[in-house]
Amino acid sequence: MPTFSRRQQDSIDRRRSLAGIPIIHENVTIDEQADNTIAMKIKRNRGAGFLDRFRPPVTEKRYELDEFGTFVVRQIDGHRTVMDVIRAFERRFNMSHREVELGVVAFLKLLMKRHILSIVVK
Amino acid sequence: MEKSRVDSPGLQSRRFSWDAVSFLIPGNWELALYTFPKRTHTRIELEDEFAVRLEAEWTRPKAKDDIEKLQERYERETKALTARASHKEAIHNLENGWMATEYRFSDGLAGNDSGREPEMPHWLVTAFHTSSDAGFFCFMILYAYPGDKDDPLDIIHLIADEFRRHTADIVPWELYDIRFEIPRQFLLQNTLFDIGSKLMLFGWKLRRFYLWHFSAANMFLKDRVVMEEWVAGYLNGFSRIKGPLFLPGRNGVINWKRRKRHFLGHRDEISRWCFNYRIRARYQRQKKQLIVWVFNYRNGEDLELIPESLRFGQE
Fold first, then answer.
1. Does the beta-carbon distance from B216 to A93 stay under 8 Å?
2. What sign does the CA torsion over B156, B157, B162, B164 have?
3. Using a CB-CB distance cutoff of 8 angstroms, which residues of chain A are in contact with residue B195?
4. What pTM value is reported for the model?
């Protein structure tokens, strides 16, 4: 075995990632809107970089979700897995599994990039 | 050793139809990939929620010799896959001229000096089908893993028992949540499967037939949105059809007129010498699905090819 062998990364396969549980971060607030959709607000502290000094100490971002996004976020309760959310979406909107999976996973990834949620993989 | 079928009452199935071939598959399998590696070859991969479960390739050879060569070729190519099997067993009693072999792979720890990760135990079924007239050859590889709810033996029986070659003039296509029929001579040229919208583009002698299926159409056809207006707007924004300007009609009919800057026709139309369009739309309330087709044709006779099931919308 080579001395400086590359440390093997813990790979997450599709089965494990779909069994992950999405959890909304504590700094996110959810507002109900009049049209039965929701808006998500996230407060973020400024970073430690040089340019961040010119930004306000706390910035707030607001995201208004459509009916599809609202449904996905309402499914997130800290117990349901990504697969549970996909199946619920499939039943609610009567769409094929494949396109629901692509859509929901892409949406969850987007929320992760925006620091709104994390997915806990066991 | 002979293996017989073990009935699995819980196996939910649905038909998958592609390129004039159809068979039953477990209900949670979907198309993952398709290619046409050669002019006469069609290849597909089906997957469930977690992994690819079936690879299939079929062709319509011209001579019987070709079938023997093909069988040899596929057997040779799968040797790399099956060589490390710990157990091999022929599957008998398959319908419709199918021959299959089941390969079992242990955990891969014993004798694994390859330096690679040990594999988890899994199964693999290879299957051949040759038609009695020697005009069709199909090869499949089926993958099964521990924890699967369906037995691979049941699945290969399901596929073989209900395997159909469609030889009529109109052939069915069934995939995801869509089902339609189209003339045999319309060949699939391209697809654009997006979230909520599935476009399949067929070609026949330089004519083009665009077919869309929009899911959850009730979400965008609400609040007094008129279907024809929505469709016309969508088509006007669709970059691949540049010649005409689409205008909403009535009862599922979309009209069109030539754009001023392409008064002689767009170069795409000129190169194919197809200057006419017929556009129809229909909302299927029960499935909440909107079906739209655009046929870019040459003359009135071409319209006779449109099958009855797609002749909706009234002038």
1. yes
2. positive
3. 99, 102-103, 106
4. 0.84
